Amino acid sequence: MKKLNILSAVLFVAVAGGICTSCADKLDLSPIDYYGSGSYWKTEAHVIGYMDGIHKHLRDAAFQHTFLWGEARGGNLITSGTSSDGMGMLYGDIKLQNFDEAHTGVSKFGDIFGRLTNINLFIARVTDATYIDEAKKGYYLGQAYGLRAFYYFDLYRTYGGVPLRLTADVVEGVIDPNQLYLGRATPQEVMAQIKKDLNKSMEYFGDNNSFDPNNRGNKKGYWSKAATECLMGEVYLWISKVTTGNDIADENNLATAKTHLLNVLNNYGLERMDNFANVFEAKNNKGNKEIIFAVRYAEGEETNKNNLFTYAMATGSTKDRYKENGEKFLDALNIGNTGSQQLEYKIELYNSFDNEDTRKDATFIASYNKDAENDELSLYGTHVCKNIGYVNAQGARIYCGDYIIYRLPWVWLTLAEIENMQGGDVATYINKVRERAYGTKWNEDTYGYKNADFTTNELAILHEKDKEFVQEGQRWWDLRRMTLTKGGKHLVFCKEGSIGMEEPVLDEETEAHKVLWPVDITLLGNDPLIYQTPGYVTYKEEPK
Predict the structure, then answer these.
(1) Does residue 478 sit in helix, strand or coil?
(2) Which single residue of 197, 333, 395, 453 has CA 20 to 30 Å from 236?
(3) Model's pTM, two decimal places?
(4) How far apart are CA 491 and CA 480, in angstroms?
(5) pLDDT value for 180
(6) Could you tell me the CA-to-CA distances from 93 to 77, 440, 474, 475 in Å, in that order?
(7) Distance CA 371, CA 360 (A)
């Protein structure tokens, strides 16, 4: 993975001939090198290099997947104004649910279609390849179909129906602009394709349960069969509880979700790390025993954006405040001049942690005001210390912690949600997560969860995820999927799903359409077959 920046050139540099310059006005279908079709696909090294590039472009979209689509709308962040460090907040429209065709949060369907086009080309060129043995070919095609399903599931949950583009759109080295127009398929059609791709991924992986079958030292930074099974669990749980357009929720899908998640528990040698903080230790512990799939970052290559949750030494005010022990805050996290707190979690989230919960100090460091007369401290702000990489040999903070897409506690808490739907006991799964959180102080009678009614269980699972998965892109999807009562309102419409406020994240009477995102006005104007997401006021609606 250290060569991903270079390897990405394999996908996009050689586009000097035959570029369709109008592509940028439509979906972001990044042009594919037409001569590469004849000269590039000749060896196993070409296949490996191209797949590395596909993973590099997944990394390019990781912040969008994890934060913008998975967390920013979840109600756990301060929405606007300035942070406790004095910085202006980012992504206010998204956090405030301020959406219309002029405020879409992201544009052109999140620029996902260029990535899909590259996967489509990979599938087309590798499926019939004779220069690579069948086992290796199956492994790489298993990755390709799994990643295509991953992208389309993001699009499905975000927009509902989207264009279904399943070919590379290359015609004898020339991309015809007219062939790039493609209307939005129905949600049901998109989901049917996601299921097909998941099944193809499983078929191609076969009995290959390895995270690194070709001994490349990838530390779970490449898609695997375990990742496909996690995605299948996530997809089938979603469609058992969430209706999207004409794709009606069906509880019968719970059994499929459960089967694949139990497979993940039993077939891949996963174990819980003993220490929560060590899960995210970036120097020596990447791809550890509880990780299933992570997007890889590395010093000298690419860093994550978690510096946006810290503080600024040069211009911020946190350095002049105090730590919990009464000492001056100064540069408590050794970030130098690399931080800028333009995103901040609510104090109510910080206060929801027990002091004995080791995740509290492994996730946040708090800043305090000190009363000048009696030296009493009062909580002022929170700053994330989770997954902020390490200080290198030159003394610089490097934000190279991986964005973890799937890890073992996610499997446990997803199975807990399935058990709750099926009337089972959720306590075993919740307590597997809590046991690690409380460490040496763990006592099930004191800190353990006892199974209760549906609503109590559902909220307990949500709040356990709130503490376990800060910054890991879960909360918006949790609110969309989880319900206050079985088959009842989704938590996005219930005040019980909110943090620090007495009203729901979305008003069901006036904002129900906002569970899906709108399409930007530029794309609507440039592509005659793309229509606005239902419910948004627009000049261009799909004909009835």
Answers:
(1) helix
(2) 453
(3) 0.94
(4) 7
(5) 72
(6) 13, 43, 19, 17
(7) 25
Of 233, 227, 271, give the one whose Cα is nearest residue 421: 233
**Which residues lie closer than 8 Å to 233 by C-beta, 6 or more apart?**
257, 258, 260, 261, 264, 411, 414
DSSP, res 129: -
Q: CA-CA distance, 540 to 527, in Å (whole number)?
A: 11
- Residue numbers of the chain with a pLDDT score lower than 70: 1-38, 169-177, 179, 544
pLDDT at 38: 65
d(CA 503, CA 136): 52
- H-helix or E-strand spanning residue 366: strand 364-370
> Quick one: tokens of 323?
């730590």
C-alpha closest to that of 183 among 490, 462, 541, 522: 541
CB crowding 186-212: b at 16 or more within 10 Å, else e = bbebbbebbbebbebbbebbeeeeebe
Retrieve residue 426's tokens.
């959720």
d(CA 504, CA 381): 24
Residue 416: count other Cβ atoms within 10 Å of its Cβ: 28
**Nearest Cα to Cα of residue 367 among 310, 421, 424:** 310
Rounded Cα gap, residues 365 and 257, in angstroms: 37
User: Among 110, 4, 123, 117, which residue's Cα sits nearest to residue 56?
Assistant: 4
Q: Which residue is it, tokens 């179909």? A: 145
- Determine the angle formed by the axes of helices 408-421 and 427-438, rounding to 10 degrees: 150
- Say how far apart CA 213 and CA 202 lie, in whole Å: 15
Helix-helix angle 408-421:454-468, to 10 degrees: 170
